[in-house]
Each structure stands twice: as C-alpha cells, then as structure tokens.
Amino acid sequence: MLETSAAISRQYIDAVSVFEALEEALEEAAHVRGGMYWHAGPPTSPELKYLVRTTPAGAETSLGPRTMELDAVYARFTQRKRESAERVSGLQVALVQQQRLNRALRVGRVDPLVVALLNRLASTKLSGHFRVVGTHALYAYEAAAGVRLDAEALATRDIDLLWDTRKRIIFSTQLARVDSSMLGVLKKVDATFRIRKSQKYTAVNKDGFEVDIIRREQTGDDPHPIKLSADDEDFWVVQARRANVLLDSPSFSAVIVASNGTMARMTTVHPATFVAFKRWLSTQTEREAMKRRRDVLQADAVQELLEKYLPHL
Predict the structure, then answer these.
(1) CA distance 89 to 25
(2) Given a cut of 80, is residue 45 above it in pLDDT?
(3) In sequence order, what are the residues at sequence separation of 6 or more whose Cβ sits closer than 8 angstroms to the Cβ of residue 278?
C-alpha cells in the first residue's frame, strides 16, 4: 500500500470538485426538464394565451389562461432553465479539462470500461438499484483514502453488481424507459457484451471482461428465479450467500478515476462490512483455496486502510 503523491492528490481533489459540481448541476437541471410556452386561444378568443408545460416525452399540460402570476412562473422557469444550461455546459467543459489532467498525471488506474459502465448506469437513473461488491469495491476505498493498494489485491477481470430486489418494480419501470433490457444497457457501453449460455447471470465482452449481477437469497415475497426484463437475451439474477448483509450495509461512495482520466461515482458497501464479509468468505472451505487467500489479503488491506486513513468511518 502506497500513499499517492502530493501532485496526484491535489489533482484528484480538484477533479472531484468539478465532477461533484456537475453532479449537482445535472440534478438541478432535472427539475427544469421540458419546457413552457404560450399557446394561442381559440378562434373565438384569439387574444387569450394559455401557459403550457411540456415534458421531455412530449406530453403537454395547460396551466391556465395568462395572468400576472403565470407570467411570473414563466419568467422564473425560463431563467432557471437558461442558467442551468449554462452551468451544466461550463462544468462539462471543465470536466473534460480535468480528465485530461488526470490522464497526464496518471491519477487513475481503473479499467475505463468500468467507469463507462458506472456512468451509463448513472445517466439512465439505474445506478440506485445496484451496488458494486467484490474486488472492484477496493478502487472506491483507495480513492477515498488517497492510497494505492497492492496490484495482487486488485487483480480481477469481472465486476459484481448487487441488485436490490426490494425495488424491482421501480427498476423495471425505469429500465423500460431507457432500454428493452439490462443487457441492452451494457451494449451501449460495449456492443460485444453477450450473456453466457452456461451462466445466465454473467455477460462477457470480446476481451473476456465479465459483468455478474447477483441478488440476496430469496426472502419474504421475493420472486425466484428473476429475469431483469422480458427480453429473450437478458440477465437471470443469481442468489448469493449472505448477500443480504451487503444489501443492508450502510452505503459508501467515492469518485474513481480510470487510466484514461475519465471519472465515475462508485457506490459500494461500507469498508467495515467489506472486511467482515471477506473474512467470512475466507473461512468457507468449499471456496477455492486461492480465492480464500485473496479474501484474507483484501480484508487485511481494507482493515489497514480503515485504521490508518479512514478512522472517521
């Protein structure tokens, strides 16, 4: 475990500031999506004007005939929308510059595909339904601590996404708005992703990188098995032992940086939960010995990271 240099730490702090400001600006912009316009009255009363609110999907709602109050509503909305657009545009330009500096200073080392995937989940409003668990969570912990963990602790060619079955109806509604399937969402990042025939909870791309989607063990009214959409080619989510511990854990998020300088927010489990879960995994005798040794290595690394660099957690 090595501490990052002062130059890299400064650049990371600056880049995260811009990234988080853009997150806030995009959230504010969501409140002024769509538009407003004045609609002419009927032929019998052409002098009348009606204020109409439009949605991004094209739906329209009349807010009533023109009044001083609606004039003020229209003025406030158009001003907020203009200011919001200017803020988002400016921060997007600033973010590109920060990402260039990230790359030049070698701030990050996460696979760019992982960052692109997380950003896709964020832009489609699906990220709130998943937590990154397993080895890739280490990138969030080391970013927050300002250190570099040993490469052997981070070696992996797959990312595990824990899906929250408790919000499955909301998830299905949102997925239908943005794509026909979860695999379709992944294909927007890399068109070569395919569901493995022998392992329906895994998608793999042409480079052998895998995305696994897991869930807690069946409980209460959880249906089982669960497919993420009605599409013929989509994930069948697999139950994972004690995944409820990870789902119920306090969340932890940090901005991670890819080797090409791009950034994304990763949401995972609290580091202390990660340590406890990995120590439990390391005691499971049916688990491969090599994986159990890595479980111990990762638990020890995050425990040290917590004690030395994240004591407030």
Answers:
(1) 10
(2) no
(3) 295, 296, 298, 299, 302
Q: How far apart are CA 145 and CA 254, in angstroms?
A: 10
Yes or no: say if 255 and 264 are a contact pair by the CB < 8 Å rule: yes
- Residue 285: predicted pLDDT: 93
Over residues 88-120, the pLDDT tens digits come to: 999 999 999 999 999 999 999 999 999 999 999
Cα separation, 241 vs 294, whole angstroms: 18
How many degrees, rounded to 5, is the angle at CA 26 between CA 21 and CA 31? 130
Please name the residue that has the structure tokens 């969501």.
Answer: 30
Q: What does the alpha-carbon distance between residue 88 and residue 27 come to, in Å, rounded to a whole number?
A: 10
pLDDT tens digits, 230-257: 999 999 999 999 999 999 999 999 999 9
* Phi-psi domain of 220 (left: phi exceeds 0; alpha: psi -120 through 50; beta: other): left
SS3 state at 183: helix
Phi, psi of 251 (to 5 degrees): -80, 160
Letter for the amino acid at 25? A
The whole-model pTM stands at 0.90
Cα–Cα dist 300/285, whole Å: 19
Distance separating alpha carbons of residues 55 and 142, to the nearest angstrom? 41
CB 124 within 8 A of CB 185: yes
End-to-end Cα separation, the chain, in angstroms = 19
Q: Which two tokens stand for residue 34?
A: 């769509």
